[in-house]
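Reminder to self: tokens first, then the designed residues, so the page reads top to bottom the way the pipeline ran.
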């Protein structure tokens, strides 16, 4: 739990600093209101927020509840990943992926933005790591590499077509190109488990995004681009966490036929 909270604290740093092009590690953590440097006791994830009653010790301004919620969300995601993968070499990969998706989702919900500072390194890292990890961890590495690459770039191309169609129909920006870049990463790591899971990731994302997101857009009468990234992330996470059940169902169905 402690490592998950610590990484959750780092996720908060990414959420605050990446969109503004600030350096991630320097300067040290500071109050967003008075800019006072935070001491060691202010940096204990979650506990420091509770101990200070959600306020800065220097200026007494309230600290947004989003900070501890992000840390808790990271703990939950890591717990779900651990339950799915157990003590395997795949676990660290998906822990990093889930934390990255948490950071990107919060940023887009707040700013309608999926920063290139996160998506581009994630794409490059995925392209490089998939062959290496496949050779080290998979019995049939060529199949795993092909599945990941087809899943990633196939997912991105599909979303690119979808974005283009939406914009032609609605005559305005419906989704951003950041969603297409994110789809490369999601498709690769979902496809690395099994190529068919990419289809389920897309279905989960569409159902959640269109139903829940559509209701929010209608109620708020938003005119801005649709924040589809968080739903893509949730769809991919769901497909990964339930991959065993999905694949078992597909195997039973193919056997029945």
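Designed residues (257 positions):
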């Amino acid at each position: 739990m402690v490592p998950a909270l610590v990484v959750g604290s780092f996720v908060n740093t990414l959420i605050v600093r990446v969109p503004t092009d600030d350096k991630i590690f320097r300067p040290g953590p500071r109050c967003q209101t008075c800019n006072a440097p935070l001491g060691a006791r202010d940096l204990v994830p979650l506990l420091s927020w509770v101990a200070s009653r959600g306020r800065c010790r220097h200026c007494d301004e309230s600290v947004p509840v989003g900070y501890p919620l992000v840390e808790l969300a990271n703990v939950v995601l890591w717990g779900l990943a651990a339950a799915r993968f157990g003590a395997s070499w795949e676990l660290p990969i998906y822990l990093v992926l889930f934390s990255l998706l948490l950071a990107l989702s919060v940023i887009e919900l707040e700013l309608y933005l999926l920063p290139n500072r996160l998506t581009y390194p994630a794409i490059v890292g995925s392209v490089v790591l998939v062959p290496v990890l496949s050779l080290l961890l998979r019995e049939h590495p060529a199949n795993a590499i092909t599945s990941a690459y087809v899943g990633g770039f196939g997912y991105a191309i599909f979303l690119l077509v979808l974005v283009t169609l939406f914009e032609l129909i609605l005559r305005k920006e419906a989704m951003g190109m950041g969603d297409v870049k994110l789809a490369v990463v999601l498709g690769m790591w979902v496809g690395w488990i099994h190529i068919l899971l990419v289809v389920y990731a897309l279905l989960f994302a569409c159902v959640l995004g269109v139903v829940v997101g559509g209701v929010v857009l209608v109620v708020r009468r938003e005119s801005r681009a649709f924040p589809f990234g968080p739903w893509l992330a949730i769809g991919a996470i769901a497909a990964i966490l339930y991959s065993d059940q999905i694949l078992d169902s597909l195997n039973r169905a193919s056997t029945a036929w």
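DSSP finds ten helices and no strands in the chain.
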